[in-house]
Design goal:
With 120 residues, the chain is mainly α. The protein has 5 helices and no strands. The protein folds into 2 domains: 19-78, no CATH class; 81-120.
């Protein structure tokens, strides 16, 4: 992203066709701290930013792996844009399934159902 130029009245702006090297080109705005603040923010949060980038990559990798596994990329990716879409996101389906498995496994332990089904 380019650094902002100083704001000028419309009548004072140089011709847009002129080169930036021209002495008539508007000067950079020295009061513009956007780039400095963004650089500081990124430097302070580099580990978190790397973690988010890695997580994003892994999500796309999961979609690709599901598409390969089911041999049907069109059914897997792209995920639905909204909850009203007729297509269901397979990652959401597997997430709910995993939560149900964990929940029911705990219920089986609490109620000793495994012993009833499998015997001693």
């Amino acid at each position: 992203m380019e650094q902002k130029r100083k704001s000028m009245c419309p009548g004072m702006r140089p011709n847009e066709a002129e080169n930036d090297d021209d002495e008539n080109a508007p000067a950079f705005d020295n009061d513009d701290r956007f780039h400095d603040e963004m650089k500081e923010f990124v430097d302070e949060n580099k580990d978190d930013i790397q973690s988010i980038a890695k997580d994003c990559f892994n999500v796309f990798k999961m979609y690709k792996e599901l598409a390969i596994y089911f041999d049907d990329a069109r059914s897997v990716y792209p995920p639905p844009r909204s909850d009203n879409d007729s297509k269901v996101d397979l990652l959401v389906v597997f997430h709910h399934l995993a939560k149900q498995v964990v929940s029911h496994r705990e219920e089986m332990r609490q109620d000793c159902l495994r012993d009833l089904v499998c015997g001693p």
